[in-house]
Write a structure and sequence with these properties.
The chain starts with 5 loop residues before the first strand and ends with a helix. Helices cover 40% and strands 15% of the residues. The chain is of the alpha+beta class. Strands 4, 5, 6, 7, 8, 9, 10, 11 and 12 form a nine-stranded antiparallel beta sheet that branches. α8 runs parallel beside α11 (416-429), α19 runs antiparallel to α24 (679-715) and α20 (627-635) packs antiparallel against α23 (666-674). The longest helix has 37 residues, at 679-715. It folds into four domains: 10-96, no CATH class; 123-258, no CATH class; 271-490, Ribonuclease H-like superfamily/Ribonuclease H (Nucleotidyltransferase, domain 5); 512-716, no CATH class. It comes from Rhizophagus irregularis (strain DAOM 181602 / DAOM 197198 / MUCL 43194) (Arbuscular mycorrhizal fungus). This is RNase H type-1 domain-containing protein. Residues 316-459 form the RNase H type-1 domain. Pfam families: RNase_H.
Length: 743
């Protein structure tokens, strides 16, 4: 998901225990990622801390890791070899190419071992006892430090003699409760926590462990004269009870293994913010439910004060009526949405509100924002009637409480997070809400007033955002680029993102350099180009004619028409030389030459002269505007204007070149917009026009070329069977050569 800049954000805080750095983060780029995850799961390995040394600088050898696993059989897994190849600096000592910083958490309740100066020496230690919580054993680990190591550019580690807690009660303490009994320790005779070191190599059966110094706490321990029949002397007694020590080490463990959250700044402090607001309004006069909803859900803070004032004004009304409207302006590359509403229960109060919003522009979202901001100011337990001209909002609102609208289907709604916020506001304020349809632009003065407010609101730069992390019914949401909330069907949206990224890779191909250059100069209308590639003017959804038509468009747009250079590349022994162009006989035939061939230029000139008149007739017959207002977009259009003064090559006219390659130039769509022809009619007229144009181009250029290509095959005794036999023989030869290499 990180590759596509997608990330799930959660409305609740959660802590990851057992480590901070999952192994999966270091395997994400492998094509065997899911197989590696399955292997790690079977081995109970989740965090990088489990497979590196205690100082966090070296990857452990697989033999050492295997000793700690429940199942010690099997060969070295692929994920371990992948880590060695990608995160290791030195293959001899398995030094990591990064340092995992130790978690230096200040815990005033405990004391940690003292940090010694960095040096190459090992310092021997006597009579210092430590304890820490081990998630692998789910128990407290006790130990007596025997040495400290703090090498240069390393984290300090300690090696300690492992002691275990004696769970049996001594006979002298039978009258004490379990929590009050003293904690006695005895030497561990060996366990799976033991690691290879100089102490464990000796013959005595004593267990030694190496750990990071700052992951342990110091405890007070003294020697005891008590004896336990089933355990070997000597015995030691802790000053504190086992339950107290366990509580301390668990708290310390949680502090060290919890992702830290940044502290709120002073501007986010609710006490300071309330004090600032008190300078402008008496907050106690605003209902606490409205006040909390506005402060928690509405952003930016500049919108809080006007909403507080409106909520204060409406506090005396139990039957509330609004007229709402939204505005969407797509005149430029940055669509603007505005919303506005007017309180109509008592017009003399002159209560109205407007503003703007961004991201996922649609008229429905603008209308929905108007409804949301109106509801958030309503008095609790009131009856609310909202008059709107958006049938889409009314239909969706009526479905919100339907049992058929499951949680999964709800997430597929457009603006689902905003609808969830509307539900949350209604349930919190216990409102009785009904939406009533009014006809748009029907002369209703109240609806027209709301429409004017929405258009004025679109000019505002205080864009309304909803802080959905405060909605308990919205446990998580998906974000793009860490800022934009995916407020659409997640599957369709992610598919669109991946399609755009795949298209970017396609456009970066070296054969499409010229098309990419024209695209960066905004010469191509991608909306209509996409429609053109999907366009089917034939009566059947699947037929041979349609297949050929699609094949022509794809091969033409990607420079993959079967010209002589490509045929020679694919069948070098069958077509031995690059033959000259079948149309001009002057240059070697390639895809690039085909659309710059001087003969092609002379062929298409009368075609474009004929279609210029047809194009002009189509627009003038459908437009209700004055011809003089859009005449220049037709007469001065470079797609047709070149016929009066032909260029030396087609590439000199980028718009014409794009059209011949089956990409729709913006100059071809702009005249429809200038003539104020609706998009629905434009799609129908323009796609039919382009189909007729390309059909004639295909007939006059490619069919003529295909006729000469057939004559060439006849002269050289090449037929369809020749190509089939060539491919078969080539496959057999390649198989024979690979068999010989293997032998």
């Amino acid at each position: 998901m990180h590759h596509y800049k997608l990330e799930f954000k959660f409305s609740f805080k959660f802590n990851t225990k057992g480590g901070l750095y999952p192994i999966s983060a270091y395997l994400i780029r492998s094509n065997q990622f899911f197989n590696f995850i399955k292997s790690l799961k079977n081995k109970d390995l989740f965090y990088i801390n489990q497979i590196i040394t205690a100082d966090g600088l070296f990857l452990r050898d697989w033999k050492d890791i295997k000793k700690l696993l429940p199942n010690k059989k099997g060969r070295t897994p692929g994920w371990y070899q992948y880590l060695k190849d990608n995160i290791i600096l030195n293959q001899n000592n398995l030094r990591l190419n990064f340092d995992l910083p130790p978690t230096n958490i200040h815990n005033p309740l405990v004391t940690r071992p003292k940090i010694i100066p960095q040096s190459t020496n090992i310092k021997r230690i006597k009579n210092i006892w430590i304890a820490y919580w081990c998630p692998r054993t789910n128990d407290v680990i006790f130990g007596r430090i025997v040495e400290k190591q703090h090498f240069y550019n390393h984290h300090q580690t300690i090696t300690f003699e492992h002691f275990t807690h004696i769970t049996d009660s001594h006979s002298s303490h039978n009258n004490l409760t379990p929590r009050s009994r003293p904690t006695y320790l005895t030497k561990c005779t060996g366990c799976n926590l033991s690691e290879p070191n100089t102490f464990n190599s000796n013959t005595n059966s004593t267990c030694y462990i190496t750990s990071l110094s700052n992951s342990t706490i110091i405890i007070n321990v003294s020697k005891s004269n008590k004896t336990f029949q089933q355990y070997r002397k000597p015995f030691y007694k802790c000053v504190k009870q086992y339950s107290t020590i366990k509580q301390n080490v668990i708290i310390d463990y949680n502090l060290r293994n919890t992702r830290s959250h940044s502290n709120p700044t002073l501007s986010e402090d609710p006490i300071i913010y309330r004090t600032q607001l008190e300078n402008f309004i008496d907050l106690d006069s605003v209902n606490i439910l409205n006040r909390n909803l506005i402060t928690q859900l509405i952003s930016p803070d500049t919108l809080h004060l006007p909403l507080f004032n409106i909520s204060k004004q409406l506090s005396t009304y139990n039957n509330i009526e609004f007229y709402t409207d939204g505005s969407l302006n797509r005149d430029d590359d940055f669509p603007k949405m505005g919303y506005g509403w007017i309180f109509t229960t008592n017009l003399s109060d002159n209560v109205k509100f407007s503003g703007s919003c961004k991201d996922w522009p649609s008229s429905s979202k603008a209308e929905l924002m108007a409804i949301l901001t109106a509801l958030i100011t309503c008095t609790p337990n009131s009856k609310v009637q909202i008059y709107t001209d958006s049938a889409s909002c009314i239909d969706t609102f009526n479905k919100l409480n339907s049992p058929k609208l499951t949680a999964r289907r709800f997430q597929k709604l457009n603006n689902c997070t905003i609808w969830n916020t509307v539900k949350y506001i209604i349930n919190t304020l216990k409102l009785n809400v009904s939406l009533i349809k009014v006809k748009a632009h029907s002369g209703n003065p109240l609806n027209d007033a709301a429409d004017m407010l929405a258009k004025e609101g679109s000019l505002s730069t205080d864009y309304l955002n909803i802080k959905i992390q405060h909605i308990n019914t919205q446990s998580y949401h998906l974000t793009f680029n860490d800022t934009i909330i995916i407020d659409r069907n997640i599957r369709k949206t992610t598919k669109r993102i991946t399609n755009f990224q795949n298209f970017q890779k396609h456009l970066s191909h070296n054969q499409l350099d010229r098309i990419k250059h024209h695209a960066l100069n905004n010469l191509i209308d991608w909306e209509y180009s996409q429609l053109w590639f999907k366009y089917n003017s034939f009566s059947k959804p699947t037929c041979e004619q349609y297949t050929k038509h699609v094949s022509w468009k794809i091969k033409c747009s990607s420079n993959n028409l079967p010209t002589m250079d490509i045929l020679n590349r694919n069948y070098p022994d069958l077509i031995k030389e690059n033959e000259p162009c079948f149309l001009c006989s002057l240059h070697i035939e390639t895809n690039d030459h085909l659309w710059n061939c001087p003969q092609v230029l002379s062929i298409i000139k009368p075609i474009f002269e004929k279609f210029y008149e047809k194009f002009k007739t189509i627009i003038t017959s459908e437009s209700n505007s004055v011809y003089a207002l859009y005449s220049d977009s037709i007469t001065q259009n470079p797609i047709f204007k070149w016929t009066k003064k032909p260029p030396t090559q087609i590439a000199d006219i980028p718009e014409l070149y794009c059209l011949l390659r089956n990409f729709i130039p913006t100059n071809l769509t702009y005249p429809f917009k200038a003539a104020k022809i609706s998009k629905t009619i434009t799609k129908k007229l323009l796609l039919n026009f382009i189909f007729d144009l390309h059909r004639e181009l295909y007939e006059k250029i490619w069919k003529v070329r295909a006729t000469k290509w057939k004559q060439y095959k006849k002269d050289h005794d090449i037929n369809k069977k020749s190509f089939v036999n060539y491919r078969r023989n080539r496959q057999q030869n390649s198989h024979h050569n690979s068999t010989q290499r293997n032998n």
